[in-house]
Specification:
The complex is a heterodimer of chains A (582) and B (265). Chain A is of the alpha/beta class. In chain A, 35% of the residues lie in helices and 20% in strands. Chain A has 3 domains: 1-47 and 79-90 and 133-240 and 357-428, 3-Layer(bba) Sandwich (FAD/NAD(P)-binding domain); 249-353, Succinate dehydrogenase/fumarate reductase flavoprotein, catalytic domain (Flavocytochrome C3, Chain A, domain 1), CATH 3.90.700.10; 434-531, Methane Monooxygenase Hydroxylase, Chain G, domain 1. In chain A, strand 2 (7-10), helix 1 (14-25) and strand 3 (30-34) form a beta-alpha-beta unit. Chain B is elongated. The chains are: A alpha/beta (582), B alpha/beta (265). At the A-B interface, helix 3, helix 4 and helix 10 of A face helix 1 of B.
Chain lengths: 582, 265
Amino acid sequence: MDYPFDAIVVGAGGAGLWAALELAREGVNAAVLTKLYPTRSHTGTAQGGVCAALGNLEEDHWEWHMFDTVKGGDYLVDQDAAEVLAREAIETVIELEHMGLPFNRTPDGKIDQRRFGGHTSNYGEAPVRRACFAADRTGHMILQTLYQQCIKHGVKFFDEFQVVDLLFEGGQPDEGGRAAGVVAHRLADGQLHTFRAKAVLLATGGFGRMFRITSNAHSLTGDGVALCYRHGIPLQDMEFFQFHPTGIVGIGILLSEAARGEGGTLLNDKGERFMERYAPKLMELAPRDMVSRAMYQEIRAGRGIGGKDYLYLDVRHLGRKVIEEKLPDITDFARIYQGVEPLKEPVPVQPTAHYAMGGIPTNVSAEVVRDDKGTVVPGLYAAGECACVSVHGANRLGTNSLVDLLVFGRRAGRQMARYAGKVERPMPIADAAEPVRAELEAIRSREASGESVAVIRKELQDVMMDNVGVYREGKLLTEALARVKELRARHGRIAITDCGSVFNTELLEAHELGYLLDIALVTVTSALARTESRGAHSREDYPERDDKKWLKHTLAYRGKDGPSLRYKQVSITRFEPKPRTY
Amino acid sequence: MDVKLRILRYDPEQDDEPASLTLAAGVPAAGAAENTTRPAAGAAGAPVRGPRWVEYKVSVDPMDRVLDLLIKVKADQDGSLSFRRSCGHGICGSDAMMINGRNRLACRIRVDQLGKKISVAPLPGLPVVKDLIVDMNGFFGKYRSVKPYLINDQPEPERERRQSPADRAIYDDTTKCILCAACTSSCPSFWARPEYVGPAAIVQAHRFIFDSRDEGSGERLEILADENGVWRCRTIFNCVDACPRGINITRAILEVSSAIVGRRG
């Protein structure tokens, strides 16, 4: 089937839904495609809050938020984008309230705000109350509120339609081609459908599933990111992947930073608040990359709990009222997934793979750019975690993922509406679905004796976790590169047992594993090349930040013999790079 | 430890039975056969097949969730086993299913809470598409029918609308809903009358009816006063038992009923 639209949004998390809402308000003929149902999107799992310098409880300014974002990102942040982020955070949060989001309230009825890691007053002086929140289910309420508004505005949804290819007209992007639509696999019957459109937004989220221990949903396989790479669009700063300090041991489910924002502490085997030694001013509210590294150091020094590879998060002193009113979900997670009662005992935690700072390069209008000069791919947009605008640089601050998807999802929708009003709809492309149909058929028809999805996926997750995690070094990265290449070759021989068309989730998992392998290859290649330590990329063989050589963004292009790397300048407008201490 | 995991399997492309089986809570579907092996597709002499229980032996840790078990079966024993899953920790609502006779999220219930014999079937009362996957379109249609969005045509203030913590607390419980359908598909009134809007949609309406910022209560209460609205609730409390978010659904339904009565009074 061929569906003609003016705009297509791929992904129904916060970025995609807000973009769709803007398109609907502008009267653009648009549709949202999601491989889940919209309310299943991973935005819904964000817990702690969304930062905006409202100043409802104490003095705050967007300039402070911008500074914190730049410093938190170890100065790899594009400062023009960080300024947009911090300024527009305020109006987007107010607009969410107008849409009905049930924020917690101050006694006088304003939006309540709490402290969060790396967010400070007066350019780094002390923690500031900036995170607006709805208990510890802020993301859930954002996702619900935006979906509600989409229903109100009659947004067209294609639920359980998984996008498996991008279409271009007038050549591939590097030949000057423009976006022309997408090909989607309908889960209900396995049919491929072509959606033609003037403007296409990729809002497909992250790809934490390439790691063994991750907070990410099973569905986070980097679909939009890998598809861009396959079509010759470079991927930016892929070596920067954030490990969140407080994941549930062994399974990686997140216990929000809100626990520390409300006053929770981290303890080692001796009962010491070890963060005193690493970040004396902000302690547990230092940025995530620093806290995760501190935890690894404690574990290496034998001060993990019982000498093992985890530490304690302690919230007992906060009292029942704070825990039950402000942290109900994460308390519940500790009870269910660890059998621990946080009111009475400390909770075992370890770092978990959480967030991709890198992704599809865009400008501040969410337009995808394909080189170091900012050349736009006409009609192609990206927003949210799959995009790299870059507001997170080398390390994202807590809550800024939500700010990012709100601010740039909204901008994407508005820009797409303007663009769609100016250009003609692309012509139908003959046999548009054929390349991906052949790819899927090859998997489906291969002899059952081939390689297994589960085995290759597990080997990938193991090597990424063990060799490309919180700490990295040349030798381990070189080894990982060889392993990922081998796994990619084996993926070409993958076979499945399900030959059906209806909800063939085995086929889709095989296809998604291909995305993860491509992304892992780019991640390792970019990490191996960057011989410095910055933000979440911490090289034991190059422990210092090297601004002379490395104050630049990585751009990884698909090449014949693997990714080829180029670099792009960082935008510095207000804040000159300084050493990063807290 | 090893557990015996029984899964109610159904493949619309190989099985003869139409996909419209409806289960009563805890009772296997009528005609569900006790098979431990699957005949090859189209094999000569293969019996007529409908939905059937298939048993798997799975080696597990007592802290594993049922979702972990399903993933293990899919990885090691039968790649064609189909189920929905996403976040894996009880927030996205993808993996609601009937586990040992109760509707639950597979990612929120541990082996040590269930014992060594575990049975898993699709949500009752909804059309089965394949294995543990049910058709959710009707469910979401009912959700949309109650106008689940803030209605307020007043000009927006420059800053946030004010709402006191007490007013915010009134509807806190129903903001937790994740639309997993565990409640609606556990409701005997819904099984008996599929046109009933169901507990989940009423919960979503409640969230706005009792929000001090909303001005659309009248429209919503009118919809819910309909013959397929709140009066279908027989306060059986299955929904409360099923809700993975701990929402007191029956109370929410009664609050909506009272609001309808109060409005008419």
